[in-house]
Amino acid sequence: MGRIIYVSPRNTEPSGGIRTMYRHVQLLCRNGFDAYICHAVDGFRPKWFSGDVPFIYRSELITPNRLKLFPDDHIVVFEMGHKIIAFFNQYRGATRHLFCQNHFFMFDALDGLGVKTWQECGVTRAFASSRVIADTVKGTFSFPEVPVIPYAVDPGLFSPGPKTMQIAYMPRKRVRDVPYIRRCFALSHPAFADVPWVEIDGQSEDRVAATLGQSAIFLSLGRREGFGLPPLEAMASGCLVVGFTGIGGRDYADQHNGMWCEEDDLWGAALRLADAVDGINRGSAECTATIEAGKATAARYTLAAMEQALVAYWRAALASAGG
After folding, report:
1. What is the pLDDT of residue 221?
2. Domains in the chain: how many in total?
3. Half-sphere exposure of 85 (CA within 13 A, CB side)
4. Both 184 and 312 in a single domain?
């Protein structure tokens, strides 16, 4: 059986995409696959979540004459990081897979490498983390198929706790929009001006889960998302989710499980926030139903479903490659 090597960015800031790569490798190892995470920098590993995986660092693959790779190896690359892709392309024998977690970035590495398609990089297979991404990648690059390996929300980590009337939010994708929304919210509804806003930024997975568990409302600030995992984690935590799908969130967002706004409708987001605060304070049946629908939506994204799709993909990939 060939090795499966997931090439991962070395972001020090929390990233659902990196967490998902690690989870894939953990699940693959549990199912008997020879799987690894590969980082370019020796000894690097994220500190904001727990979970051990086998590592291969770039330096371990370097030999005087060629990379220490073999024909039955499988290299999983991501949408960006053209330098690390160029490094692996020094050896052309292994099978290459694109794991796309954000279709808005799917040209980034190609531009850095000066090519038009992933096939020109030696990538022969692709898989994605949502149907929105898979449809875009398949339609653009004409892969025969782009299977979806869904995200998972850990109910042991993300679950409702005693709620406080506060608005949790992650500002990273809309840093400049947050002050605008807050001012519209406070000035148009002065009775709610003292509602606390709790920023979630650069925190550990455990701390994020604790904040969501105690927050009544989550303001979704997604933009140009491949999927948008935080709103789903907020749903699992019993938050009333208000805000933007970021396009990728259309995979799970509907009129029942959140108070969604048109993209970039910042004034609308402020009004929906006020509706959410008012509804929760009054104990409205509509808000309660939306929260319950959110919980039910998040409950569909199980570790078991991720594991089943992941194992099926890799069994088929290794069989077709003779691995």
Report:
1. 98
2. 2
3. 25
4. no
Q: Which domain holds residue 35?
A: 4-152+303-321
User: Residue 42 sits in a domain of what CATH number?
Assistant: 3.40.50.2000
Neighbours of 168 (CB within 10 A): 24
Rounded CA separation 318/315 (Å): 5
- Residues 6-25 have pLDDT tens digits of 999 876 676 778 889 999 99
Query: Looking at the domain assignment, is residue 183 inside a domain?
Result: yes
Between CA 165 and CA 231 the distance in angstroms is: 17
269 inside domain: yes
Q: Which two tokens stand for residue 29?
A: 């190892």
User: In terms of C-beta distances under 8 Å and separation of at least 24 residues, what long-range contacts does 311-319 make, across chains too?
Assistant: 311/27, 311/28, 311/31, 312/147, 313/127, 313/147, 313/149, 314/4, 314/28, 314/33, 314/74, 317/74, 317/95, 317/97, 317/125, 318/1, 318/2, 318/74
